UniProtKB/TrEMBL annotation:
Compartments where found: Endosome membrane; Lysosome membrane
Name this protein carries in UniProt: Lysosome-associated membrane glycoprotein 2-like luminal domain-containing protein
GO BP, sorted A to Z: establishment of protein localization to organelle
Lineage: Eukaryota, Metazoa, Chordata, Craniata, Vertebrata
Coiled-coil intervals, chain numbering: none
PANTHER family in alphabetical order: LYSOSOME-ASSOCIATED MEMBRANE GLYCOPROTEIN (PTHR11506), LYSOSOME-ASSOCIATED MEMBRANE GLYCOPROTEIN 3 (PTHR11506:SF30)
Pfam family, one: Lamp2-like_luminal
PROSITE patterns: LAMP_3
A single GO cellular-component term on record: plasma membrane
Main location: membrane
Residues spanning the membrane: 155-178
Length: 189
């Protein structure tokens, strides 16, 4: 869990799995660095309309900039740097787009895998995320707002289930109608 606090008030709270992926030019294959929360250093800042979460680890950092725009908040920028020890190459990228929007007092939750292209051949993968900035009460996440990917993932099984149920009803009605026809046996010609 990653938290940023100021004056005994938490302004950012986040739980997420993070992985950086970079294409090694020398080896011509993808290199993966999974961020271990137990070996990271967390720092940042709390503001009235802008708060920052910096996650530093051996070989790089990932930074999230949160913006408060009443009645919502969102991540305005994601920045990441990675130094591959095997080749000494530095990968750096920043995305300046609105992501993870939620109402103030609510948390944004997404179990689905989300991949962000930071630069060509350099990506950030986020999984099992729940985050909240500003208006955190009692150091607890507020009401959850699910991401589109999770909502869409639940809709497909429901649609398939309803389709199968509809098909079973049609088969049952057809069977019952066919049983009600009187049996005539052999007819004389």
């Amino acid at each position: 869990m990653y938290t940023i606090s100021s004056r005994n008030q938490t302004c950012i709270k986040a739980v997420m799995g993070l992985q950086l992926m970079a294409l090694s030019i020398q080896e011509k294959q993808m290199k993966y660095l999974t961020v271990n929360p137990n070996t990271t250093q967390i720092h940042g800042s709390c503001g009235t309309v802008r708060s920052v979460l910096n996650i530093t680890f051996i070989g790089g950092f990932i930074s999230f900039v949160f913006i408060k725009k009443d009645p919502t908040y969102y991540v305005n920028a994601i920045e990441a740097e990675l130094q591959l020890p095997s080749e000494g190459k530095l990968y750096y990228g920043i995305i300046r787009q609105q992501h993870f929007t939620a109402k103030l007092g609510n948390s944004f939750k997404c179990a689905s895998k989300q991949t962000f292209g930071l630069k060509r051949a350099y990506q950030l993968l986020i999984v099992n995320m729940q985050l909240q900035a500003f208006d955190i009460v009692g150091n607890q996440f507020g009401r959850e707002e699910e991401c589109f990917l999770d909502q869409n993932g639940k809709a497909v099984p429901i649609a398939v289930g309803l389709s199968i149920l509809g098909l079973l009803v049609i088969v049952l009605v057809t069977f019952l109608i066919s049983r009600k026809k009187p049996y005539r046996g052999y007819e004389r010609i």
